[in-house]
Design brief:
By secondary structure, the protein is of the alpha/beta class. It contains one helix and 18 strands. The protein has one domain: Hexapeptide repeat proteins (UDP N-Acetylglucosamine Acyltransferase, domain 1), CATH 2.160.10.10.
Length: 182
């Protein structure tokens, strides 16, 4: 009996994934700035208006949450790979007033995010509002990207710092980071 239940459970799981994938493909087809070759995993979430997401040819998003607005777009270049459980948020709470005020409104900060071409964003990465990531950048797993990153740099950590690539890759506290990866 158990093998039959296991087979049924697996079949149901595959059916759910298929339905989710088709629903996401339908959503992507409504987004005017997402190239038709873009592939996404079944758990990808696009939170925001359809025209707030710009994704280039051949990019793949495995399992991520992208949050954007008409004033704060998320742009991902061509040939990028985005890992599991990645959060790319162009909208967030205002740190000065993170909770609802007397009028019930929650102040928010909206600043676009740009990821260049041929970037690899590892699993469990958080990319903060207003960040710009250059071309050919690798962001290591479990990183928190709080500052912009130039082309050709490998970063990792919380907050993300350059571990290989150009010297003065990311400025932390006004001081450039050296090339620690060589």
């Amino acid at each position: 009996m158990k093998p039959i239940l296991d087979c049924l459970a697996f079949s149901l799981y595959r059916l759910v994934l298929t339905v989710k994938s088709r629903a996401m493909r339908c959503r992507l087809s409504r987004c005017p700035h997402i190239h038709e070759s873009v592939r996404v995993g079944p758990n990808v979430q696009l939170i925001g208006p359809d025209d707030a997401f710009i994704i280039g040819e051949g990019s793949y998003i495995n399992d991520a949450i992208l949050t954007a607005s008409t004033r704060a777009k998320v742009t991902i270049g061509a040939g990028c790979t985005i890992g599991y459980r990645v959060s790319i948020k162009a909208i967030t709470h205002d740190v000065e007033h993170p909770c609802a005020g007397d009028n019930g409104e929650i102040p928010i900060v909206e600043r676009g995010i740009t990821i260049g071409n041929a970037c690899w964003i590892g699993d469990n990465v958080f990319i903060r509002e207003g960040v710009s990531i250059g071309n050919h950048v690798i962001v290591g797993a479990n990183s928190v990207v709080t500052k912009s990153i130039p082309d050709g740099v490998i970063v990792a950590g919380a907050p993300a710092v350059a571990i290989r690539g150009k010297t003065a890759a990311i400025e932390q506290d006004g001081e450039p980071n050296g090339d620690r990866g060589k």
